[in-house]
Write a structure and sequence with these properties.
Blueprint (H helix, E strand, L loop, with lengths): L4 H8 L3 H8 L7 H14 L5 H8 L4 E6 L5 H16 L3 E6 L3 H13 L5 E3 L10 H8 L4 E4 L13 E6 L1 H15 L3 E6 L5 H16 L3 E8 L4 H12 L7 E4 L2 H13 L9 E6 L2 H5 L5 E4 L3 H13 L8 E3 L2 E3 L10
Parallel strand pairs: 1-2, 1-3, 3-4, 4-5, 5-11, 6-7, 6-8, 8-9, 9-10
Antiparallel strand pairs: 10-12
Helix pairs in contact: 1-2, 2-3, 5-13, 6-7, 8-9, 10-11
């Protein structure tokens, strides 16, 4: 039989209010009383009725996180940081999987129906053009925070909505400055998905940065997608050029992995024959065959949760965050062979 707060109070000879305050560590309850109440609660196996508390304070104590997949490095990095931040704040996280726009919308609707205080969404790339999930959340006045990418039509006035994205322009400049300082003047670029705003910004910044620094972009814009195998195939073509690059800039660490495999397959050493720079600083960057020079970003999940929590606690507005990166120099870059 579940132990009630009233049962705990009667056994201790205290009022229900005093016991409740003691369990909440209220300042007007003595230390000795708090210790006695907690010890008795532990002995009897009492735990608070969170459902009842939610009705009183009108806060469910949980948020939703929707991901396009649960196994990718992108998904795990976002979910890990958000889950850690939520746990530190005593907030539970319900994770949902959405591989299509329809599934995203259904997940948002279901989470709102069950009382989610906010929804964090790592959307599919195609939702950058329009998001039915955003429309559903706005109709229900549920805060929604987009992570890494967000719909093109969203604005600060579009309900309780915000986003946390990476500064991909800054990432391009960090990589180009590093390669330029090493002496590289001929570089190639391998981008991700052409429909992704972040990848488009990265490409644009690389193109502008190469021109500004007096460098040469060999092969133009190679938007190879998200698969390392596609990057490897394109890299083989680059390696066949008579006057090829001495360094490769990649929009993700995954693409950099494909580039490095292609180099080794052709008998070219990294960084002896080719320097490679990625973006992300995931497991591959740290533990691959060649430790990867890359641009590291803080956890977007943690930043997003802290952004929402600040608004929930009336400590500020949910203003969008452009997360800045930092260059991590490892073993995949060196001076070019003369």
């Amino acid at each position: 039989m579940k132990v009630r707060l009233r049962d705990l109070a009667e056994g201790l000879g205290l009022s229900v209010m005093a016991v409740s305050k003691a369990l909440r560590d209220a300042p007007d309850i003595g230390v000795a009383t708090k210790a006695r109440v907690q010890a008795e609660a532990n002995r009897l196996g009492y735990w608070p009725n969170e459902a009842a508390r939610s009705l009183r304070v009108k806060q469910s104590g949980w948020v939703g996180l929707i991901l396009p997949d649960l196994t990718s490095e992108e998904g795990s990095f976002v979910s890990g940081g958000l889950a850690e931040a939520a746990q530190e704040s005593g907030i539970a996280v319900l994770v949902g999987l959405a591989r299509t726009g329809k599934e995203e919308m259904e997940q948002v609707r279901a989470m709102m129906g069950r009382g989610a205080e906010a929804i964090f969404l790592l959307p599919r790339i195609s939702t950058e053009h329009r998001s039915a999930s955003l429309e559903v959340a706005n109709r229900g006045s549920c805060p929604i925070i987009f992570l890494k990418r967000y719909p093109a039509g969203v604005g600060l006035g579009s309900g309780k909505v915000s986003w946390v994205v990476r500064d991909m322009r800054g990432a391009a400049d960090l990589a180009l400055d590093h390669l330029y300082d090493l002496g590289h003047r001929r570089v190639a670029y391998f981008g991700g998905h052409s429909a992704a705003r972040s990848h488009a910004l990265h490409l644009q910044s690389v193109q502008e940065g190469v021109e500004t620094r007096g460098m040469v972009l060999v092969g133009g814009a190679n938007m190879v997608g998200l698969d390392s195998e596609d990057a490897a195939k394109e890299m083989k073509k680059i390696l066949g050029k008579k006057e090829g690059p001495t360094a490769i800039l990649c929009a993700t660490d995954i693409l950099a992995g494909g580039v490095i495999r292609a180099c080794y397959g052709a008998g070219m050493m990294v960084p002896g024959g080719m320097s490679v720079v990625g973006v992300g600083d995931g497991d591959f960057a740290r533990h691959g065959v060649v430790s990867l020079t890359t641009v590291r970003f803080p956890s977007l999940g943690r930043l997003g949760f802290e952004l929402w929590k600040k608004g929930r606690d009336d400590l500020g507005e949910m203003k969008p965050i452009l997360a800045k990166g930092e260059l991590v120099v490892r073993g995949s870059t060196a001076k070019p062979n003369q």
